[in-house]
Amino acid sequence: MGVGASPPIRIDRIKRRADFLRAQKFRRQHAPGLTLETCASPEDAPPSGCRVGFTASRKVGGAVERNRAKRRLRAAAATILPLLGRKGHDYVLIAKTATLSRPYAALVADLTKALMGAHAALEANTSSARKGNEARNELES
Asked: What pLDDT, on the 0 to 100 scale, is given for residue 132?
């Protein structure tokens, strides 16, 4: 770890369908090898780190192909999320057909790009909401 680098965060798994559906309603980032859905973790989730879930539809292929795609996504997430994931966030990684054939380094780059884009969009939303609240408070004063 370099100077000023934050320590890796803990990663838990998303297992309940309700958590997958909640992530589906918020921020979505597309990349050639995967789709990333992001949202804030619920209050009952452990605050020590982030949570991640994986899914692959039958469009990806049969059971063997879907399992291989999810294994590749799990490996990429294990590499990137401890470094770039944020505490109190849920991430759902959705496999695409390209997940199977894409080189692993490109898959990791796709996940990194998707995470950076999702975090930038979340920051833009929270900062604009904050500005709106400040303007509203000034009008009320």
From this structure: 53
